[in-house]
Amino acid sequence: MSLIQQAANFTLPKFQYMDMETCQWIIANNPHYTASRPAYSRQAAASLARFPIDTAWFQNPLLIDSLHGLRHLYRTAYFCMRLLEHTGTLDSEDSDLIIVAALLHDIQRLDDKADEGHASRSALWVISNLPRLSQTWNLKLNAEHIAKIEAVIALHETPYNSFSPEQQHLYTQHKSLVDILKTADALDRYRLPKLTWWPDDKHLALIPPKELKQEAYQLVAASELSFLKGVGSGDSVINITKGHHA
To answer: What does the pLDDT read at residue 89?
Structure first.
């Protein structure tokens, strides 16, 4: 049974994998924010290629190719880069930090359901594994960088209107990067099998331009189709953003 059928029947399983019927449904529901096809950012794509994800980092290997697996993580990181371009801060030192946060924000998920607490678990995992991450990705992180990455990951799960006083204080300190990850994470919701779960500006503090919404939709549709044709999860995203199609 397809994901769209399971979503309609309220029977989505703990681990959710894209299928061709659902992918074709996504393609058929093009929101048409703009008429033109997107021109993907080669600079953002090149940034992704510098950060290979070791699948052993996932809390559960069943998530590697699921809706919260590699494709979601790489697309979220790409959207972060595009949002940095939109705000004119792509060349700042924060660009690598937001890529790290995006690529690891769901790394300690237990399943594809709501999984309350996964943000805190992922943030703690990142802090506990900094030597391995720094070596793998050739990172030089100081205490300020680490604090930013931890805060951005830890806050991505909680809606703005549900922040505790402590979370609100943390958000005030790291507002711009938190907003970027939350919006980038939302832009990847075009992969979800129900239209009411697709991106909604009223839940965001940083509203993406319509051109980026169309680009996000197109990247989801194209990379999910590429994956179903046999391209690996990470490559299916990176290849599309580089202009290579399955």
So the answer is: 66
Calpha distance 228→149 (Å, rounded): 32
| Pair of tokens at residue 236 | 């299916």
Dihedral, CA of residue 142, residue 144, residue 149 and residue 154, to nearest 10: 140
Tell me how far apart the alpha carbons of residues 8 and 4 are, in angstroms, rounded to a whole number: 6
Rounded CA-CA distance 4/57 in Å is 29
Residue 101 in contact with residue 153, Cβ under 8 Å? Answer: yes
CA distances from 61 to 64, 176, 237 (A): 5, 32, 19
Tokens of 15: 């681990």
CA distance 102 to 29: 26
pTM of the model: 0.96
Task: List, for residues 108-151, the tens digit of each pLDDT value.
Answer: 999 999 999 999 999 999 999 999 999 999 998 999 999 999 99
Burial class (CB in 10 A: 0-12, 13-18, 19+), 32: exposed
Pair 199, 187: CB distance under 8 Å: yes
Token representation of residue 80: 């972060």
Q: What gap in Å lies between CA 231 and CA 239, rounded to an integer?
A: 9
Name 116's Cβ contacts closer than 8 Å, sequence gap at least 6.
157
Our CA dihedral for 70, 71, 76, 77, rounded to 10 degrees, sits at 60
